[in-house]
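[job 4471] stage=fold_predict status=RUNNING
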Amino acid sequence: VRSAGERTLQAFPRGIYVMLAEVDIASYEAYARAEKRPLGRCPRAQRLAAQAAVCINHADAEGYAAWLSRQTGQRYRLPTLAEWQALPGASELLNGLGGSVDEWTSSCEMREVGAVRGALGSLGRAVSGRKDAAPKRYCAGRHTVGLREGRVQSQTRTEAAARPDLGFRLLREP
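[job 4471] inference complete, writing structure tokens
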């Protein structure tokens, strides 16, 4: 199974390749049929208008990467936010993808449980010199990347988000 993006990969530092196009509808539908997964959360007409597989939540984007890895024997994954930011020509990759489509990354927006309490607790530990256990953290959402005013920019979305302006592309490792 090959997606439009898989046919054309661009070299990335450390021998990693990035898909030049987002995962397309036909490739995602092959995965969804094989794994008995939903085709996306948007009406079919809205998905077809984009040509890219959109309305896919984070778990299904990760699931597609794992499935494609099993199908091809190569390791595919979502890029991290740092990889997107370091990617030479990232704005050119995102240009012309049919509007303002954002893409999932594997990076979490980490937050402390009870952030205000955690900040006061950190201040108290600093003043008293106590070294208590580190505050607990959780993933508040996943970073997405998109092109805004010619620059790659990110925002955080809940992992369940599935919108007509949200798709994904993958990296392939050696």
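[job 4471] summary: Helices lie at 4-7, 25-35, 44-50, 58-72, 81-86, 90-94, 115-128.
[job 4471] exit 0
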